[in-house]
Write the structure tokens for this entry.
Amino acid sequence: MSPGRIAIALFIAYLLAAPFVLPEFYVTLMNYIGLATLVTLGLVLLTGVAGLMSFGQQVFVGFGAYATGVLTTVYGASPWLGLGAGLAFTAVAALALGLITVRLSGHYLPISTLAWGIAFYFAFGNLELVGRYDGIQGIPAISLFGWSIESGRGSYALIWAVTLAALLAAHNLLDSRSGRAIRALRFRAVMAESFGIDTARLKLVVFLYAALLASLSGWLYAHFLHFVSPGAFNVNIGIEYLFMAVVGGASQVWGAVIGASLLTLLKEWLKDILPRFFEQSGNYEVIVFGLLMLPLLHRARDGLMPVLARLGRRNGRAPARAPRAAPALARRAGPAAGEPLLGLAGVHKNFGGLAAVRALSFEMRAGEILGLIGPNGAGKSTVFNVVTGVLPADAGEVRFRGARIDALPARRIARLAIARTFQHVNLVGGMSVLENVAIGAHLRGAKGTASAMLRLDREEERRLLHEAARQVERVGLSAHLGEPSASLALGQQRMVEIARALAADPVLLLLDEPAAGLRFQEKRSLAALLRRLRAEGTSILLVEHDMDFVMGLVERLVVMDFGEKIAEGLPHEIQANPLVIEAYLGGIE
Ligand code: ADP
Ligand code: MG
């Protein structure tokens, strides 16, 4: 068993034993920890993994608590109806808030979450229906199979059953096709879109899931305390949840338990001693939390979870375990060799006053390797970005197999079986080589977030990972399968980029300077790989600096300089072309 699994088994054993050995007071504390873990877990996914910072999760806790509070006390409804109504209301509210805010970038998103946090706090406090600042009293206990959950220990069982289920679901989610996509959202959204991932939709899904977890926590809270008031949904509570996520390790599912436990215990302890110290009562613990955050952010920015994980795994290297064999994924029927494949006509792309690509036209046929060369800054990468939909063209047409694609977003172009690598390596650094490559096969799977949480995706997942492993092997990196991609040398990372593009089963492969940073031997095996791909029917548009590498490989060349095509032809024609020689010599000067 891995140290991680042992830790989880020990934790579950502790959870099972705790209500029998701990005094009632500590069982109650454990209940608070479970409730906080649920909210923090949502924040881990939202903030730590997907990179969307929220100070407003307490509002969704409030929705869950108030919905069931009102329904059960005013209308005498069952708590289960309260749960359904709370989740439904939260879902609608989260989708509405999410549609407005999730697309905001930078600091606008956290500010908007603060804004709704403040707005709903005052709304809870001023609405007659929800008891203004007095809140709602006398919320009944939940009954389950005729058994009324009155005691702290009864609540404990329910709270921790729900919390464990949520932790497991989140763990499963991150270890899946959708999970890999979610893990790419934070730093690699452009790459994700280029492999067909709808990042805006996925962000909304994560936002919704985090809100529902918070709402669930609110429902449990209301029936556990039999009471809700606006004070529990103040903005500083939202900040505390964020602290919990950061302390535990904002990108780690189990970090939610650690953060929630530490801060809940610390808060309890500080509540006891600080008023004595200040000689009057008040919420002084926030001061201490704030001060403790400073050294933490300096010394362990990723929270405590990675520190603990390092302790557990002393030799520090993930095992390179090949995934189990699985039936191969279906392959796509490509066009016949010689069919028109890609055509650019009069393409322009400006950056402000700079014309990066000017009136560029060229044709490419299926089955060929076309080289696109030119000095630095000639506009080659910009051509790639326009063809793959990463950047919109300002004018001109791009056709693929006869159809216009220049108005399509990157993820739609990916569906046409166009796959690319990036000049500046665009891997998810903390993710293993195998998982990075599996992102390339995203569109060859279909299972979504719900089936991932319930582990109904295992059959498909095995096939995706098997395909990814096959591509990793093809580029000669099988020995590094389980390593984080960031730990590889730059040349190897470029090969991972190629494997990821191949995992998409592309008809057209666009490679942006794949040989840069490779050693001589590696260049030779790359050239051999590209020849093999061509023999299998894959067409390749190759941007490359290394003339020797290109000349022996390509059928034809297009040469660019200052955004314009200055020559096109067979390799030996290009080598003798005075314009090309001058452009390259000029480039060296
Ligand atoms: P190449 O790949 O041939 O080296 P690029 O396509 O990367 O050239 O760049 C062409 C020109 O466009 C360069 O002058 C570069 O500085 C500029 N450029 C590229 N991308 C951007 C961008 N996103 N914003 C502004 N200028 C850019
Ligand atoms: Mg470039």
